[in-house]
Specification:
The chain is mostly helical. Helix content is 64%, strand content 1%. Strands 1-2 form a two-stranded antiparallel sheet. The chain starts with a helix and ends in a 10-residue tail after the last helix. The mean pLDDT is 91.
Amino acid sequence: MNYKLLISTLGSLLIFLGLFMLIPIIFSLYYHDNDILALLLSASITIGTGLIMRYFFKGEGTFTAREGLAIAGLGWLLAAGFGAIPYMIYGTFHNYIDAYFEAMSGFTTTGATVLYPIEAQPHGIIFWRGLTHWLGGMGIIVLVIALLPAIGRGAMQLYKSEVPGPTADRLKPKITHTARLLWIVYAIISAFEVLFLKIAGMSLYDALCHMFATMSTGGFSTRDASVGAFNNPVYDIIIIFFMFISGANFALNYRLIFKGDLKCFFKDPEFKFYTGVVLISTLLVTYNIYAGHIYNTISSALRFASFQVVSIVTTTGFTTADFDKWPDFSRFLLLALMFIGGCAGSTGGAIKNIRILLLIKHGIREIFKLIHPNAVVPIKLGKTVVPDSIMNSVTAFFFLYIGLFTLSTAIMAFLGLDLVTAIASTAATIGNIGPGLAKVGASQNYIHIPYLGKIVLIINMVLGRLEIYTILVLIMPGLWKK
């Protein structure tokens, strides 16, 4: 392990993070809020620490897989640690666990919150809270790769450690160029959402904050009642659209924006599966809540069903209705969608559509081979044969995900939570979704969770965002050997 290179790169991450902390001050000044000093001090502490790390630990050499894994894992833990400082200095929270929970929820785009009332907080603090979403959505390590060309050949190790999915797409031969392009695509689509929300009548401040949460599929809102507080169907439609495309692979968005290739969406097996999941789930929930007399008109049922289905399956976590009061079938279906999540290469969390699709194909193949034991039946995505190494990785990830979910649920139940709350809080945090059911439902938050439970859920968030392996290897002694 090259410790100087590790600490130096983490120092660069903190410098970038501290500079971003200065942006919310613009809104603090505009709204004449009293959080300016807290943000300035937080930025100074973060930038100062980063400069010290860069100065005293000047890194040399190239990245190996070990440095890449360590920087990705520690980078997120460190980002949340320093991202919590504005909350503590201003006094938003009176204990560091709650502040760290909120910061980790922001960076991992989980959207689970222990903050209430949100609307009582100053604009700068809430803007920082939303900005953590946007930074974490495309990836803080990917941002470092994009801004630090000196990383060079080691960039691929960092990139693979953070980008979600069984494989990491290259848009360009150089990973630094790929990282920049991903952030450019991310910024372009973000700008369009702000524009549309502003035209629809939302204030610039609210439009920016809700864009941060939509594009990152995070879910932090400026309102306690989330998007439902606006009760505006036009806002709902705009946010549904941008949640949906944020849940798709950003490599497809890149091809559309830079190459005008719309057909790539219709050719991509994962995107077609993802679209089918959304459409079928929306129709089922719409029928269920309309037949259950939750809404008087089919149009109202479709409006609220489509928003919640897209919000949950993309792991955004915005709410426009208290879906915990919907019929059991709808609640069960939304819970199931928490495990599916978005597409590989998206800002969405959970298991990912491509893994679910491959597991279904694998199951069908095994049934077929019971009838035709000598048949050679490769698993294909479109016309591409999926290597056995990828299938082994997908299967291992699935069982590890379910195993961690089961263990975490057992711990939460042991701490005194009812079974539904224990299941939902675990699914909602390891899948980076935010709201769950029962005591962590759409109209609730995570304030009442015991501190030990919050620590478990914090671990869930970062495990889910970095797809388990990157965090688990941090406890392996072999990683830290020189």
